[in-house]
Amino acid sequence: MDLRYKELKYCKGVGPKRAEILRKELHIDTALDLLYLFPYKYIDRSHFSYIRDISSEDEYMQIVGIVVDVQTVGTGKTKRMTAEFADRNGDTIELVWFKGLQYLKIETGVPYILFGKPSFFNHTFNFAHPDLEKIVSQEQLQTRCGLEPHYNTSEKMKSGALNDKAMRTIIQGLMPDLKEGIPDTLPDWFIEENHLLPLTDSLINIHFPANGRILQKAKERLKFEELFFIQLQILKQAKRQQMQSVGFRMPIVGRNFNNFYYNYLPFQLTGAQMRVVKEIRADFVSGKQMNRLLQGDVGSGKTLVALLCSLLAVDNGFQTCIMAPTEILANQHFLTVTQMLRGMSVNVRLLTGSTKQKERRELLPALQKGEIDILIGTHALIEDNVVFANLGLVVVDEQHRFGVAQRAKLWAKNLQPPHILVMTATPIPRTLAMTVYGDLSVSVIDELPPGRKPVRTLHYNIQRRQQIDNFIEQQVEKGRQVYVVFPLIEKRDKKNKEEEQKQLADLVSGYERICHRFPEYNISMVHGKMNPKEKDLHMRLFAEGKTQILVATTVIEVGVNVPNASVMIVENADRFGLSQLHQLRGRVGRGADQSYCILLTDFALSKDTRKRMDIMVATNDGFRIAEADLQLRGPGDLEGTQQSGLPFEMHIASLATDGQLLEKARRVAQTILEEDPELALPKNSLLQTGLSKLKNSTTDWSEIS
Ligand code: ADP
Ligand code: MG
């Protein structure tokens, strides 16, 4: 029987009822689909232990012994059953059950195989809810070999008698058919060249591995296949787009670029900045449209790279727009750029939500006539009445704040799409970039301008408040400035409304406490609930050094540049994600002074929070932090993927742990497409089939470029 066409209900141990549950819960139809439900873990049942071997709570163990005594204790909710279990050495341990007592049938004096995970309770080990299997024949002690697979099941499945054990039995029942072999989904030459296990062997061993080594091989084959098809898809699409998308040619390095570079640039470019400018220039002369992601840690000098590229565009007769996610940031870019270009004849203008109608009436026609060279702004740039004469380059700063649709709208501002440079300070782990932004080229600024002292990060609990206040005092006495950041979610839905109120109250009372503690200082407060005028005023007061302490929410997270600020205090740091904390820390360490980031949390921490704090203290490297974030939260929750989700479903491979395999899969896909871009060769026909079966998400990625 071909497992590909065998219906679920005809599989041993399934039947029509359970088939229906499986279909509803897991969206599967065939025996082969069952084989693609991979175990989430394996337990080594090849080894028997003794009670005296127990040393931790982490390991499952199996022990042979007898139950010497059974008792039911307590009543009602506290009712439980306990048993004393003795092994072959005569050592004993307590077993305990809290639930399902009516189903338990435990006999004393007969031998059992106990299987479970020990727990440590009241200064000693016991087993809660262990499996007990009566030994009726000597064989039971010999036949259990190798690794036992365990399967995820849902509540609905469990109530339909499809628990972990039942799933194991059902899948075991498919093995005889499977062993006769099923057609491979990859061509023979491909399997051979990449040293992969054939599909049949992989499926057998992913469920019932004879040993750990063969399990590894099986996993590797299945992961590799999954990653390979995703990369094949991405690269094929990207190639097609590249062939189609003609880009503006910008071959000239002209007057403006050279004048700025040789006469106005206030410092030497870092090696990384230089390299990235060269990469972008290569795109400008290629005749193809550029779609480039520029990653660089906070303070690495991305703005300058954007400016240099804008000047290249201007030299070639094109306009540039630079889009920032907040008004504060757009203003700041405008100031930076106009200051740097002071004395040059480049026309730079600002357009935000606060730009007055009167100014707009003059600005928009000028833009349309091509009199404006560089337009800096916010979302206001996307509006339909903003028309360029000749838009050649779009720079999107801090891209994760923009949705896909908004970007697509910008792209459409020309008949021919402009070159796109997307800049982000939230480094995206390479694996994620290759999967989510597979069609973007990636540049990295991995070097900070010279003379920066790394920020020192400390993690304190709030009981040390007094000490921290003293530290703030010291720093302010030295002429430094201090950020104090509170978490504040701003959500519309009701449930979060309460949380928002509470957090706002925390922020305000924190502000009041600080005002009270430091009556001699000027203190600013900004948060998203304030009116924009007041917010801007206070940001400016702080930026100009007129206030010493800024109490704020994450509105300051993105891009704000106050070099004199040397202390970042994060209240309730456990409420922030890793990348957010890293962004916040990037607000300090911008001047020549030693800077500090102090993370404040409660005394009791969850394991996850402790890890996040430890990582922050241990490293300043944004890429390492992004990797750690990926490990802790999984790819779906990372910024950059939140709005759009991952474009591909993955069953077995993980972006967090299978980076090397992904790189290899990508290389292989690349090589194949170079030879056969449309997968038209007969030897690649299976690959084409696999590609068409790939479950793609609904996101239309062609919109982006
Ligand atoms: P980010 O990459 O976070 O956007 P910015 O572009 O704001 O960083 O740059 C941070 C600071 O570093 C700015 O004050 C900028 O003027 C300065 N800077 C940029 N490039 C250099 C350089 N090559 N040498 C010295 N300072 C630089
Ligand atoms: Mg920036």
Characterize the main sheet.
7 strands, mixed
* Broad shape: globular
Uncertain regions spanning at least 5 consecutive residues: 638-645, 697-705
Q: By helix and strand content, what is the structural category?
A: alpha/beta
Ions and ligands: adenosine-5'-diphosphate, magnesium ion
Keywords:
705 residues, alpha/beta, 7-stranded mixed β-sheet, 7-stranded parallel β-sheet, 17% strand, disordered C terminus, binds adenosine-5'-diphosphate, binds magnesium ion
Give an overview of the whole structure:
The protein has 705 residues and is α/β, with parallel strands linked by helices. 39% of the residues lie in helices and 17% in strands. It is built from 24 helices and 22 strands. A 7-stranded mixed sheet has the order 6-7-4-3-2-5-8, with no helix packed on it. The chain has a 7-stranded parallel sheet with strand order 12-13-11-14-15-10-16, with helices on both faces. A 6-stranded parallel sheet has the order 17-22-21-18-20-19, sandwiched between helices. Strand 6 and strand 7 form a beta hairpin. The longest helix is centred in the N-terminal third of the chain and has 33 residues, at 212-244. Residues 638-645 and 697-705 have low confidence and may be disordered. Magnesium ion (MG) is lined by residues 302-303, 397, 559.
